[in-house]
């Protein structure tokens, strides 16, 4: 309906100036650009409001973290640590992963702590094997089904396997335990379930990985041929979950498999294909809003975008994926993984100092292999190498990458490796 008042004087039509074809074209072009700009702004505003409305804040607080100020939409300032947790809970996942009523566990089978250096020059992702024995400190209570969070803390649970912490006290408890284990403050945390991994793989447009041998795993219904394979949807989830299709069927082989995927994912993201594509960024934020439980500090679109932009321009050789050093053993009558304290301290000291890392122990016995088929294992010590005479008195270098102990296995995002299947 017109907003003009009905008593407005009639318009008098005088002689109109002769229109210029060029001038008319310019006016049409300018008008088109204006309409396009308004449309983009409107859609962007709707998208951000939509994400805000659906983010699962969930009252997940992180112990020892005073909270991070919500950043502007640019690269986040300074260093930070982000905890990523993969849950095996079937709750809300449908019937595609077994009967949810029968498979009611809530174990964090994937626990990865990502450290970004103060100057954003390097990043380290530390995978903690699910059967690692850890000291579980006092933890927040998990969120009730009605959305409330009980006040106070649960008492320390003592020595337990790390993958029990999500069930014990939710995402906040896993964060508290990882802080206790590593001495690194967890600033942000997020947990994802099966359907979330599937949706994320689709939103990113799939991830191409290399398989040196076929992977066949009846337990996850995975059957992949050797060679280059693009993983999307449920196939990506099956690949990340498989244990019996790689190595010796243990969680350690699965960690190496996940590092192949994460390395390929980072190469794709940093190539500019994702960070420079607003549609993909929005899709990823949309997936996170629908499929992840986020800590209070992470449940903001600005924060998620700023964290992603902190990676922009980071050299792939400075992004390192490592397994937290452990050794198999028995504790409290249970078989599991026991931290190798001296080697873990060497790794964590280097991370806390924001040093780039050099992996000397290869990808591990059941790890990935380079795409060209060469071995990733370091050359054997033949005993003929003679250290420099002043080696014992030289102070440790503070420049260049830190050589990690042999027990710290892994690879960088620059290493194009192939998953070592069981075929």
From TrEMBL:
Start-end of Acidic residues biased regions: 379-392
Pfam families listed in its UniProt record: LytR_cpsA_psr
Biased segments, Basic and acidic residues type: 1-11
InterPro entries registered for this protein in UniProt: LytR/CpsA/Psr_CW_biosynth, LytR_CpsA_psr
Entry's transmembrane regions: 28-49
Matches recorded under PANTHER family: POLYISOPRENYL-TEICHOIC ACID--PEPTIDOGLYCAN TEICHOIC ACID TRANSFERASE TAGU (PTHR33392)
Region (Disordered): 1-20, 359-423
UniProt record similarity statement: Belongs to the LytR/CpsA/Psr (LCP) family.
Keyword Isomerase recorded: no
Natural source organism: Paramicrobacterium chengjingii
Protein name: LCP family protein
Keywords: Membrane, Transmembrane, Transmembrane helix
Positions of the Cell envelope-related transcriptional attenuator domain: 108-270
